[in-house]
Q: What sequence folds into this?
């Protein structure tokens, strides 16, 4: 499978990638080659190389100021690269103005016209298209049916919900049948439950149209739910590319491991290296830990080790297998579907442990309570070794 140089090869151990319409051996639909964008002395995007297949939902994920929106604006033609080239469907778009690109953009604010009906908002994007009036009307009807807003066609934006306004903006963006749709924080204005529901609606609409989507978001869960693949950005650079499983289960750096989800991170030193596993000394855990080996390890090497909270098991008795460390429960938070325990080791380091509440409280004794002495354990495969 063809990937960019930033793609982690360990992803093959994770889940299969979401289906896309382009075979891996075909030319990539979008190619970004050595793109850099400077504003004066500030470098917003630095030497980015990226390839995206036709029919993907690809997410650019990162915090504020990481360069993701600047990269999106260069794809749209709203900003010009300081250097580098951008290709869409085999055509060099670098010097083309926005109105000549087969691209449309859906803005975070939705930018709907408040004095127009839903129908007229969707039709506005077709204003300058070479279409008959009947053809334009048919396209609008098709788009409203696609986003399930036919019965709201004569309402104005203030007369529909936030989620429906988001779908109006999406219908308007898709009405021109762009080859590429860019979505800038498309769900940021929605509440949590509506955002979760709309994620699946977006996926369904994208699947029906076959349009390639690139989504910019700072929301990790949104990127992981929506995307065929995603790119994690930091300080204008792409730190890792892969499926949600690749990036979550096999991060390639401390930054990515810490940015995606919650994690316990430790300084360690390699003591021995085997074919499948390695042993590392972790002072904050009071001894030696067995972990899945990675390439290039040598005895005596300084390294980082990370463990996700949900990969750790709490018990009152010392487990017979796996890595086990004694501790005391210092804090406990109940979130309904799961509970978060903060367990202090003998060295004073506090570890986060997440436990699913599979049974109702009261039907079974809690795994542990405040100030209980416990053991926490995890399999070697759950310990992530990181060189950088």
A:
């Amino acid at each position: 499978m063809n990937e960019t140089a930033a793609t982690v090869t360990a992803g093959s151990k994770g889940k299969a990638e979401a289906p896309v319409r382009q075979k891996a051996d075909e030319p990539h639909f979008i190619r970004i080659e050595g793109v850099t964008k400077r504003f004066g002395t500030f470098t917003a995007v630095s030497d980015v190389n990226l390839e995206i297949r036709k029919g993907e939902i690809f997410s650019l994920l990162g915090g504020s100021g990481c360069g993701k929106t600047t990269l999106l604006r260069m794809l749209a033609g709203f900003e010009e690269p300081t250097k580098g080239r951008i290709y869409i469907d085999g055509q060099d778009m670098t010097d083309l103005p926005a109105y000549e690109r087969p691209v449309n953009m859906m803005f975070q604010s939705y930018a709907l016209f408040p004095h127009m009906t839903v129908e007229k908002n969707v039709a506005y994007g077709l204003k300058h298209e070479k279409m008959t009036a009947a053809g334009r009307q048919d396209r609008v009807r098709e788009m409203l049916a696609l986003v399930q807003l036919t019965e709201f066609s004569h309402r104005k934006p203030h007369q529909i919900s936030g989620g429906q306004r988001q779908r109006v903006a999406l219908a308007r963006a898709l009405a021109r049948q762009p080859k590429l749709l860019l979505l800038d924080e498309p769900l940021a204005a929605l509440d949590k439950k509506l955002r979760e529901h709309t994620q699946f609606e977006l996926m369904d609409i994208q699947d029906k149209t076959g349009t390639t989507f690139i989504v910019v978001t700072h929301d990790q869960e949104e990127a992981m739910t929506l995307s065929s693949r995603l790119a994690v950005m930091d300080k204008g650079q792409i730190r890792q590319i892969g499926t949600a499983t690749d990036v979550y289960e096999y991060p390639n750096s401390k930054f990515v491991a810490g940015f995606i989800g919650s994690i316990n991170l430790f300084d360690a030193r390699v003591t021995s290296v085997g074919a499948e596993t390695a042993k590392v000394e972790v002072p904050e855990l009071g001894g030696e830990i067995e972990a899945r080996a990675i390439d290039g390890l040598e005895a005596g090497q300084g390294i980082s080790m990370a463990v996700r909270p949900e990969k750790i098991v709490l018990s009152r008795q010392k487990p017979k297998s796996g890595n086990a460390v004694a501790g005391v429960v210092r804090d406990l938070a109940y979130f309904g579907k799961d509970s978060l325990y903060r367990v202090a080791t003998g060295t004073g380091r506090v570890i986060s442990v997440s436990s699913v509440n599979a049974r109702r409280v009261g039907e079974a004794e809690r795994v542990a309570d405040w100030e209980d002495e416990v053991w926490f354990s995890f399999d070697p495969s759950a310990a992530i070794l990181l060189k950088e």
Notes: The helical segments are 68-76, 118-124, 133-146, 162-175, 192-209, 220-226, 244-249, 254-259. The longest helix spans residues 192-209.
